[in-house]
């Protein structure tokens, strides 16, 4: 996910700094409304320039060219996506590793400079926004609640989930909680942040799913359930030892969880050690939360994500029923 201030009509960004986030979640705070929360930020510097391009040529006439553009990725109309500046002639022109697809003078361009900086425990949240809307800005101002701060985690922030009106942010080892507070100024965040649990975290992004009143997840040592107050391990010694032994360590980041409400079960999709090349999840382990039992593992095919939808008969959806959609 990328966070930046842009004029989307021209693809040119007014800010010289943007962030790539490892994860982004929506949080409906009780006191200010919905915000987007992003974590594990990588900062990249962007420079806005103009230049003249010629169809079929890799040279861009750019009187403002400077040495720091070397190696940067350039974004502009008429230039192939992902083009990189390979040569800079200061004050004259730059050469990219592809050819322009049109001839235009004074084309607005964004150049993303190389050598980004990672801030693994920095979290940023957006301006509040209404239903079916998106935040107008991520920049802190006098009139909104957007802000950025570091959180007390060991290791990078991996993912987050809402529960009981609060927002829980996990690293590989720890969990912190964001609790709404009743004031906001230009110097104070609208969320109080404190360490909630040392030892419970999240194995990778998307390793959680929520039912009506509980959240289920996976960390480095167990499969857990969270009731809004405390974490409890779900996997007995036999189940969890078998599960972690099955995982392909090269594709731990492909694990994800979903809730199947029709069958009252939490489903864990993962890649085991005998999966075909490519690391696409090929197994599913499920837990029946109404009976508190584990189901036998199942073989699945190309399970890159999962969601629920109504069961359709013709053009009519059946009430109170759902089906699983697994897709590659």
3D structure, described in words:
- It is built from one helix and 27 strands.
- With 328 residues, it is mainly beta.
- The strands form six sheets. Strands 1, 4, 5, 6, 7, 8, 9, 10, 11 and 12 form a ten-stranded antiparallel β-sheet that branches. Strands 21, 22, 23, 24 and 25 form a five-stranded antiparallel β-sheet that branches. Strands 13-14-15-16 form a four-stranded antiparallel β-sheet, with no helix packed on it.
- The chain is globular, with a radius of gyration of 24 Å.
- Helices cover 3% and strands 49% of the residues.
- A hairpin with a 4-residue loop joins strand 23 (283-288) and strand 24.
- The model is unreliable at 6-15 and 320-324 (pLDDT under 50).
- The protein has one helix spanning 237-246, and strands at residues 2-3, 6-7, 12-13, 17-29, 33-53, 59-61, 73-75, 83-89, 93-96, 104-112, 117-125, 147-150, 159-163, 166-170, 174-180, 191-198, 208-210, 215-218, 223-226, 231-233, 256-260, 265-270, 283-288, 293-294, 298-299, 305-313, 316-327.
């Amino acid at each position: 996910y990328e966070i930046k201030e842009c004029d989307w009509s021209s693809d040119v960004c007014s800010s010289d700094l943007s962030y790539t986030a490892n994860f982004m979640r929506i949080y409906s705070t009780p006191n200010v409304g919905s915000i987007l929360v992003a974590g594990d930020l990588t900062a990249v510097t962007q420079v806005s320039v103009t230049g003249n391009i010629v169809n079929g040529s890799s040279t861009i006439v750019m009187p403002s060219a400077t040495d720091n553009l070397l190696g940067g990725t350039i974004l502009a109309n008429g230039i192939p996506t992902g083009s990189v500046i390979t040569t800079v002639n200061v004050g004259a022109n730059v050469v990219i590793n592809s050819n322009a697809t049109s001839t235009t003078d004074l084309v607005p361009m964004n150049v993303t400079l190389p050598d980004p900086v990672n801030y693994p425990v920095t979290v940023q949240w957006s301006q509040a926004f209404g239903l079916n809307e998106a935040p107008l800005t991520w920049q802190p101002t006098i009139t909104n609640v957007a802000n950025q701060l570091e959180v007390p985690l060991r290791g990078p922030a991996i993912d987050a989930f809402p529960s009981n009106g609060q927002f829980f942010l996990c690293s590989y080892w720890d969990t912190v909680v964001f609790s709404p507070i009743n004031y906001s100024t230009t110097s104070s965040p609208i969320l109080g942040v404190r360490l909630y649990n040392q030892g419970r975290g999240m194995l990778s992004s998307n390793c959680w799913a929520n039912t009506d009143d509980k959240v289920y997840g996976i960390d480095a040592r167990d499969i857990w359930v969270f009731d809004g107050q405390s974490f409890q391990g779900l996997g007995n010694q036999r189940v969890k030892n078998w599960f972690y032994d099955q995982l392909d360590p090269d594709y731990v980041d492909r694990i994800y969880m979903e809730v199947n409400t029709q069958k009252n079960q939490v489903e864990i999709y993962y890649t085991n050690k005998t999966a075909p090349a490519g690391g696409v999840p090929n197994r599913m382990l499920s837990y029946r939360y109404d009976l508190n039992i584990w189901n036998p593992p199942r073989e699945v095919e190309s399970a890159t994500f999962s969601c629920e939808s109504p069961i359709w008969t013709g053009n009519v959806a059946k009430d109170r029923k759902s089906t699983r959609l697994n897709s590659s």
